[in-house]
Amino acid sequence: QILADLVRRSKACVAYTGAGISTASGISDYATKAVNSAGHVQGKPRRSPYEAEPSLAHRVLTAMHAAGSLKHWVQQNHDGLPQKAGFPQQDMNEVHGAWWDPSN
What is the mean pLDDT of residues 30-56? Predict the structure, then answer.
């Protein structure tokens, strides 16, 4: 409740997300790719970013932006899932580059 109230009252709320936001869409993060890491799960199906669909988190952040609660999204991914969810490119920065819109 406190976090929701802070977001509602914010004038410049920004989301900063990493690879974990896309794992629910079937895209591996770097920890799960490392065979000797604690996050590695053998046999778990993974998808190409081209085939993956946005997760609930992608859709919620897009809805927050549409409602005026989220001003900007900075992400470390380059999977195109925010854009597939309808998030506008001009209000996003992709730290490691972008294949969805290389002008970013």
Answer: 66
Neighbours of 6 (CB within 10 A): 10
Mean pLDDT of 44-63: 85
- SS3 (DSSP) at 17: strand
Alpha-carbon separation of residue 26 from 23, 55, 100 (angstroms): 5, 9, 18
In which band, very low, low, confident or very high, does the pLDDT at 71 lie, cut at 50, 70 and 90? very high
Instruction: Find out whether 104 and 80 touch, Cβ atoms under 8 Å.
Output: no
For the chain, the C-alpha Rg in angstroms (whole number) is 15
Q: Which residues are catalytic, by number?
A: 96
